[in-house]
Amino acid sequence: MHQPAGVHLLADLYGIAKEKLTQATVIETLLRQSATAAGAHILNSHFHSFGSGQGITGVVMLAESHISIHTWPEFGFAAADIFMCGQAQPLRALEVIRQALQPTSCQVQNIERGSVTHSDVAAT
Amino acid sequence: MHQPAGVHLLADLYGIAKEKLTQATVIETLLRQSATAAGAHILNSHFHSFGSGQGITGVVMLAESHISIHTWPEFGFAAADIFMCGQAQPLRALEVIRQALQPTSCQVQNIERGSVTHSDVAAT
Asked: Which candidate in A1, A49, A64, A74 is best for mutational testing of the B interface (most B CBs within 10 A)?
C-alpha cells in the first residue's frame, strides 16, 4: 500500500468506433496493459458485459488504487477513471487507452486526492 | 445500461477511527448498503485486504457505474468514489458511508461525467 496522496484522472472519451467498446475481454486486456505501462501493480480485474453489442463496465484493482471504465457503444462514449497513489504514472495509462480507443475528442480532469493534511480541511 | 450522463462524487474522508478501515467484509457490506440506498443496481463487488490491520481496496460494480473505496488506516483516511448514471442518487450513498465511517472532515468533489455532446468538445 502506498501513501494516500495520489492523482485521479477522469477521462470522458467521445467519438469512439462502436466496435471498440463492446468486447469485455479486449478492454480488460487494454486496461491491464495501461496499468503496467503506468508502472502500477495489478491485484485483479473484473469486467461485465451488458450483452452482445452492448456496453461493458470493468475495473482493474491496483496496489496503487484502480482503473475503471464504462462504455456506451451506442453513443461512441467511454468514461475512464485512473486513480493512482505512489509513484505510478496515470497519464501513461491514459495514453495507452487513448491510443487504443482513438476517440475523436477527450475531456480529462486531473484531480488530486488525499493530499491535504487533516488540519487543512474544515469539518463538515 | 443507462444514459452516459452521470454524477461522479470524489470523497476524501479524514479523521476516521483506524478500526473502521481495516475489515474488507465490513466495508463491502457498507458499500453495498450505500448502493442500495442510492437506488442503484449491484452487479457484483470485489474487495481486497492488504493484510491484518492494514488498508483495503474495493469496488461495487453497478448497472449505473461503480462505487469504490481505498483506505489507509494508518492515516485515518479513506478515498471513496461514487459514480452513478441514470436516476440513482449518489449523494444518498455518500451519506450512508459518512454515517458509518464518521470522518471528522470530508472533502467532496461533485463532477459531471459524459454530459457534453460530441460537438461541444474540441478534439485534442
From this structure: A1
